[in-house]
Amino acid sequence: MGVPDGVSVVLFTSDLRLHDNPVLTAALRSAPRVVPLFVVDTGIAAAGFAVPNRAAFLADCLAALDEGLRARGGALVVRRGDVVAETCRVAAGTGAGEVHVAAGVSGYALRREERLRSALAADGRLLRVHDAVVTAVPPGAVLPAGKDHYAVFTPYFRRWSAEPLRPVLPPPRAVLLPEALPSEALLSEVRTEPLPSASSLARGAASPALPRGGEREARRRLAAWRRGGLARYAERHDDLAGDATSRLSPYLHFGCLSPVELAAGARERAGGGCAGAEAFARQLAWRDFHHQMLAARPDAAHRDYRTRHDRWREAPGELAAWRAGRTGYPVVDAAMRQLAHEGWMHNRARLIAASFLTKTLYLDWRAGARHFLDLLVDGDVADNQLNWQWVAGTGSDTRPHRVLSPTAQAERFDPDGAYVRRWVPELAGVPGRAVHRPWLLPDGERERRGYPAPVVSLEEGLARFRRARGLA
């Protein structure tokens, strides 16, 4: 069946932006008229991944995207249901010859892509999949000899740093809807859903201090970061109380910012001698590293990348204490309370909290990863699951049995206890470094402050872990 080539569909997924969007740019080049489409995927909700924090952020992102499209003559079409079925309906209803979409890396995204390609082909339509949209360097673009992906970060980073980036694209000046469906007609005949609210996407309340989503907010934060935070990032990024990270991860996750644009800017400033930019580029490379790992091994989202034959403990009470920020280890509890309040956590705090769960309590990394995905606004399957495996020692870490002592980490990265006091008000009056070891306070003081005793001693936890891994 032949179809007209004057219309194309842009299926937005994790690329909710107008600046540097190869999917949108290619669609506009291939046809004079486009239908910008977002499908609220009911499969996400069915799998339990439609959670309040990301739902609220997504609602902001879609509203901002629609606003940007309307300023250029377009509008965002929103459908709800199976992505493949709804996309095919919109393509057929508007006479689109092509559908453009960003490449994904998760098993779910890859299966969806294949289903969509087959369904469109059966109706005489084409699927165009675009790389370097959700990562700076596409998965598979750099490979070690004889292998399908890099399993160690350092050699990957060397290749990543030398890999040319595609040009950063300007936002479109105009986004024209099909002539037969001007803006208002499009709303009545094609768009069956209003712009979604947070409550329509997920049940429950979002974290009180959740950041605002959307491309406009993302670009405001990016400009502020480049002016004030980037230059000192190398020396300050592990400072828990200093809060000196970019906080751009939610905007990268939803595609409000382009990783290519960020990487290009970081490389340019690093070339000029900016150590902070070089350190920031390294973090962007870690993100790409995990995406290329998951693209090659999709089952790493739920299975050990490198098994250590762990027989994880079952300790529901200890898991509940960790989730609630009541472990008796102040820096761990501060991290978990920050997560609950902001839907975000400092990266160093993520490492400390994850090591405590998997190495000190010896509980399954999947339980921790799922809790993070329930709350993190930047909850990304590639980054979250593979960072958890790195800490658990079942992933890419070349020192799989390392244990991060929460007290040593706290004393190094929160030396005066400001981070702990911010998030654990029970200990706000404890002076100096004593805040990191409340079990050593004078008799009865910890109890009077309402702070719990440690769920396990660090010595006992370490010995148990070493026995479990056959290291004792």
Any overview of this molecule?
By secondary structure, this protein is of the alpha/beta class. The chain contains 22 helices and 5 strands. The protein has helices spanning 22-30, 42-46, 52-70, 83-94, 107-122, 153-162, 183-189, 198-201, 215-228, 233-236, 249-253, 259-271, 275-296, 316-324, 330-342, 347-360, 365-375, 381-392, 406-413, 418-423, 445-448, 458-468; strands spanning 7-11, 33-41, 77-81, 98-102, 126-130. The chain has a 5-stranded parallel β-sheet, with helices on both faces. α13 packs across α18 (381-392) and α15 crosses α16 (347-360).
Largest sheet: 5 strands, parallel
Q: Using only CA atoms, what is the Rg?
A: 24 Å
Distance between the termini: 68 Å
Q: Helix fraction?
A: 40-55%
Give the number of DSSP strands: 5
Number of helices: 22
Overall pLDDT level:
94
Category by helix and strand content: alpha/beta
Order of helices and strands: EHEHHEHEHEHHHHHHHHHHHHHHHHH
Sheet-strand content, in percent, reads 5-15%
Can you tell me the overall shape?
globular
Strand order of the largest sheet: 3-2-1-4-5
